[in-house]
Specification:
By secondary structure, the chain is of the alpha/beta class. Helices cover 52% and strands 10% of the residues. The strands form 2 sheets. Strands 3-2-1-4-5 form a 5-stranded parallel sheet, sandwiched between helices. The chain has a two-stranded antiparallel ribbon with strand order 6-7. Helix 10 packs across helix 11, helix 12 packs antiparallel against helix 15 and helix 15 crosses helix 16. The N terminus is likely disordered.
Length: 323
């Protein structure tokens, strides 16, 4: 079986493949590609839901493709309307830059833990904060009709209550990132969560029209629990990657406490263990679910990845003593 088919099959088996542009498999199969994923620094930390698209970069890099983790220091000046029912409060450049630095450190921990040497970091503030408006309107805006933009879910969901021109224009800025990264690094693939599909396909359209070259995108699904609740939420709020916002102990406990119906699925999505290992854990868990082997393996691997083996040992022992 070709490597790229194996990669996409692996992503599908792990529950990490949702939407894709036509011809993606063939495009990746034809050689090593450069892919990117954007991360929004409007908060000082990513949360565990952001690990879903991060895993797409991890698996692409492990399959031999070059990947770029793009922190949105420029797009954060505008604010992404996707999944939002109201306008985002605008942050200052200093706040965004501080958030971007912290998020780069969080991503770096994940990539080092995954041993993905093929992932590099970038920040779109480098080019977006210098863009001249008239040039942007001529070079980017001319490729998009208002009808195309109005049809996107991120805009449609806000029409009843109103959306500012600022947030309405967000998809054009993200599309421009794709074109800029094509010129700088040869990027031809963008990945993200399924809530970003409209923005991703806008980038694909811009690259195809402006640069007359092949471009593709694919997404991971938005994750919910088996009961339908939003993934990564607790009574105390979101589960953050920053230890100052969610302690390593609480982080560990989140994974220990996931439902039996979710444990195996999360192991496939968020860990790097191979299929044989995970299927063995599933079988052991099915025989003795009360021993919570899947949850303990999940909590150990996730805490080690984000906070290190020594911290994981300390919080695992604390959890054992308490419970």
């Amino acid at each position: 079986m070709p490597e790229t088919t194996t990669l996409l099959d692996e992503l599908a088996w792990r529950g990490l493949l949702h939407q894709q542009t036509e011809g993606l498999a063939k495009h990746i199969a034809s050689g090593a590609r450069v892919a990117y994923c954007g991360f929004d620094p409007t908060a000082p930390s990513l949360h565990i839901g952001n690990l879903v698209p991060t895993m797409l970069l991890v698996h692409l890099a492990r399959a031999g493709h070059r990947c770029i983790a793009l922190v949105g220091g420029g797009t954060a000046m505008i604010g992404d309307p996707s999944g939002r029912s109201a306008e985002r409060p605008l942050l200052s450049p200093a706040e965004i830059d501080d958030n971007a630095t912290r998020i780069r450190d969080q991503l770096d921990r994940v990539f080092r833990a995954a041993n993905t040497a093929g992932v590099t970091m970038a920040n779109n503030a480098e080019w977006l904060r210098e863009v001249r408006m008239i040039d942007f309107m001529r070079d980017v805006g001319k490729h998009f009709s208002v009808n195309f933009m109005l049809a996107k879910d991120s805009v449609q969901s806000r029409l009843a209550d109103g959306i500012s021109y600022t947030e309405f224009s967000y998809m054009l800025l993200q599309a421009y990132d794709f074109l800029e990264l094509l010129r700088r690094d040869g990027v031809t693939v963008q990945v993200g969560g399924s809530d970003q599909w409209g923005n991703l396909t806008a980038g694909v359209e811009l690259v195809r029209r402006s640069a007359a070259t092949e471009a593709h995108a694919f997404t991971a699904p938005l994750v919910t629990t088996s009961s339908g609740k939003k993934f990564g939420k607790t009574e105390g709020g979101a589960v953050w990657l920053d230890p100052a916002m969610t302690s390593p102990y609480k982080f560990y406990q989140f994974w220990i406490n996931v439902d039996d119906a979710d444990a195996g699925r999360y192991l496939r999505m968020f860990t790097f263990s191979d299929r044989a290992t995970l299927e063995s854990i599933d079988a052991e868990h099915a025989v003795a679910p009360h021993e919570r082997r899947a949850q303990r393996r999940l909590a150990a691997e996730m805490t080690t990845m984000l906070h290190g083996a020594e911290v994981m040992q300390v919080v695992a022992e604390a959890s054992r003593i308490v419970f």
